[in-house]
Structure formats: C-alpha cells, structure tokens
Amino acid sequence: MPGFEIFGAEERKQVSDVLESGVLMRYGFDGMRNGHWKAKEFEKAFAERMQSQYCQLVSSGTSALTTALAAAGIGAGDEVIMPTFTFVASFESIMMLGAVPVLVDIDDTLTLDPKAVEAAITPNTRCVMPVHMCGSMANLKALKALCNNHKLILLEDACQALGGTYEGKPLGSIGDLGCFSFDFVKTITCGEGGGIITNNEQYAVKLDQFQDHGHDHVGNDRGAESHPYLGYNFRISELHAAVGLAQLDKLDGILKTQKRNYSIIREALSTIEGVTFRRVPEGGEENYSFLNFFLPTEDLAKKVHKALGEAGVDACFYWYTNNWHYIKGWNHLKELKSMGRLPSEIRARMQDLKTADFSKSDAWMSRTISSLIKIGWSEVEVQERATIMKETIEKVLSS
Ligand SMILES: *Cc1c(COP(=O)(O)O)cnc(C)c1O
C-alpha cells in the first residue's frame, strides 16, 4: 500500500517548485508564488480521478472526517454509526464535534454489517460511516438504501481503499461524502494530509470554510474576508500538497503492482484447505493493498500469525489483539478517558462499550490475518513470500 516506497525525482521536483517560490501556504501571496498553486492543482486532479465534482484537501485523514461531518451539519448529540473494526480516527473525529459514536458489528466483509446498522438506527442517528478497511468496501448498495429510507448521511471512510471501486465507481464517490488519508503509510502520501470528495455544492462550500477558520474565500484580500461560520485550521500546506501531486500521478502504477503482488499470494494461499478469504461485496473491486484471510479458529490464527513472523514473513497483521484498530484494544474509549470534560451529550448517550456484545465481530476478527501488499517487491520476491506463507500455514494447520 505505501506510496513512500517509490519516492523519486517527481516528488523532489514538485517540492522544489514550492521551495523556490518560498510560498508554503496554499492561500494568498499571489505575486510571489511563480504561478504555483499545488493544493488547488491537487484538488482539481483528485476530484477528476475520483469522478467527483469537488475535492477539499486538509491536513490529515482524521481532520478530513471531522471536516466532512461538520460540513454535513453534524454536531452535539447526533449519532454516527461506525464499525468495531477501524482506526481510532473514526471515533475521534465524531467525538471532536460532540457527536456520539455508535459502534456496531462487522461481517465477513470486515466492514459494517448492514443488518447491524439498521438495528442501531434511532431518532438521533444522522450519519452512517462505513470504513473500507484494508482495501475493500462495505455493502454500499444496502447501506445507501438504508440511508435513503431513514434520511441519513452516508460518509465513506476510504482512507485505506484509495483506487478500489464499487459498481464501476471509485470508492469514496458513492456516499454523500468520501474521505481519504495521505499519511505516510497510505496508498499515496503527502507526508501528512487528507482529502474529502463530494458532489454536493453546499457541502463543498462548507468544507472549504470549515478547514480554514470559517473563511469564505471571497475576494483576494484574506484579511478582509468574512466568516459565515465558526471553523478551524485543518489546512494542508503547499509542501505537502506538492508531494501528493507527484504521488497521484503514480496511483495507477501502484494499483497495478498491488494487484499483481496480491494475486500471486492469493493464488498460493487459495490451495490451502482451511484458508478462506474476506468477502468482497458483489460489484466491488479491492485496491489490493492487503490480502485478508481467515483461519478456521482463533487459536489457529494466533499460531499462524506467530509462525509467519518466525519464518521472516513481515507485515502480517493480527488486528484482533492490536491496540489501534479493533474495539478490544480501545480501553481509553471504553472508559471515556478524555483529558478534559467530555460534552454532556456524549457522557449521557455513549453506549456502554465495556459490556456491549460484539461477539459477531469477534468471530471474524479473531480469525483474520492481513498481509500488507508492498509495491517494492519484485515478482521473484513475491513468489518466494507466497511459497513461505503457504508452507508455514500448512505446517501449522497439519500439526
Ligand atoms: C489512516 C486512517 C485514518 C486517519 O488518517 P490520518 O491521515 O492518519 O489522520 C482514518 N481512517 C482510516 C481507516 C485510516 O486508515
């Protein structure tokens, strides 16, 4: 998945354009910038690549989620439905606005189970946030139908699935809003950065305002602009945007290499009795950034994960016991350990995560192993990795 594996002259050229002008900010200083508007250029190119009308760049994937929720009018006490398997950024971005995260089960897609979502809808629900974890998507058709019926906003967290598609459309472009991260380990990177796409003009205007202290960006005197709403500073810098611009040109090549490497490993593992793969919803195509597979039991998954590590197979993840990506490791959330006092709406309405039953999620996650797909591997190296993985897993399963 990581774009950082292929930094080169293109990134250096883009960054030196910015350094030569010395204008590191995305707004203003028109006379000094030698015509370089890297953030604007990236937004235009990204919107086009994502078949969406608007793109707003921001400082991170996490701030993209917060900005998207804010632009959609979500605030104190509103409930946002999110999965148990995701990165901590999901609940962070929701709680930042005083909104209440409602955690529900995933299924064998490793993303939101539409039935669990439906069961969690209350009169306070405003938004459903599927997270397309590890390169593949939620059942967007079912979620879209639910959102239409209940008048809810569908916000796709596509931070880990850039380049994947659903019914021929880019992931992130199917919901009302879609969010991406360009942090250092994502499919393409700016160092730090994020983006939001939408086809809704009103949302686009508010995204633009929220990420820059409420600036309306009307006219060409920053100090004289007005501020129709309260906002924040989630701006991206020109330096970061410049790196992203070079990386975006490499996206199709990255996806092609990921698919080749993924397919070689998948083919080898698919011959093992007892190994099955994460379900991709009908009409979907992964971005191939991870190969996700299930072992028959939790015990076997733990043994396989350990054996793979001992055999020198790097970048295999057992998320079930990982501190950052699964509810089991989120004690700070379960105990609501905020540094200051949380909004009363959250304290009053947050589900009790210490006693909540997520056995359905556990049943999948406890058996899941994900192999990162690197793009720096040569075909020979992937073949070797596939062979070692197959032999190691077979040895565990037969012992
Ligand atoms: C990386 C990631 C984020 C947050 O992105 P940052 O740029 O690191 O803030 C959000 N959601 C998911 C699923 C991610 O993988």
- CATH topology group of the largest domain: Aspartate Aminotransferase, domain 2
Our Rg estimate from Cα atoms comes to 21 Å
Determine the strand fraction and express it as a percent band: 5-15%
CATH superfamily of the largest domain, by name, is Type I PLP-dependent aspartate aminotransferase-like (Major domain)
| Count of helix runs | 14
Largest β sheet strand count, sense and barrel closure: 7 strands, mixed
**Helix vs. strand class:** alpha/beta
Q: What spatial form do the alpha-carbon principal axes imply?
A: globular
Query: Quick check: average pLDDT?
Result: 97
**N-end to C-end Cα span:** 33 Å
Q: What count of domains describes the coordinates? A: 2
Bound molecules: pyridoxal-5'-phosphate
**CATH architecture descriptor text of the largest domain:** 3-Layer(aba) Sandwich
Helix content: 25-40%
Strand order of the largest sheet: 1-9-8-5-4-2-3
Q: How many DSSP E strands? A: 14
Q: N-to-C SSE series?
A: HHEHEHEHEHEEEEEHHHEEEHEHHHEH
Q: Which runs of at least 5 residues are low in confidence (pLDDT < 50)?
A: none
Q: What is the CATH top level name of the largest domain? A: Alpha Beta
Q: Could you describe the 3D structure shown?
A:
This protein has helices at 9-21, 38-49, 61-71, 89-95, 114-120, 140-150, 201-210, 238-248, 251-269, 298-310, 331-334, 344-349, 359-365, 379-398, and strands spanning 54-58, 79-83, 100-104, 125-128, 153-157, 165-166, 169-170, 177-181, 194-198, 276-277, 284-285, 290-294, 316-317, 368-372. It is globular and about 75 Å long. The strands form three sheets. It has a seven-stranded mixed β-sheet, sandwiched between helices. α1 (9-21) runs antiparallel to α8. With 399 residues, it is α/β, with parallel strands linked by helices. The model has no long low-confidence stretch (mean pLDDT 97). The protein contains 14 helices and 14 strands. The chain folds into two domains: 3-250, Aspartate Aminotransferase, domain 2; 252-398, Alpha-Beta Complex (Aspartate Aminotransferase, domain 1), CATH 3.90.1150. It binds pyridoxal-5'-phosphate. Residues 60-62, 86-87, 89, 131, 157, 159-160, 181, 183, 194 line the site of pyridoxal-5'-phosphate.
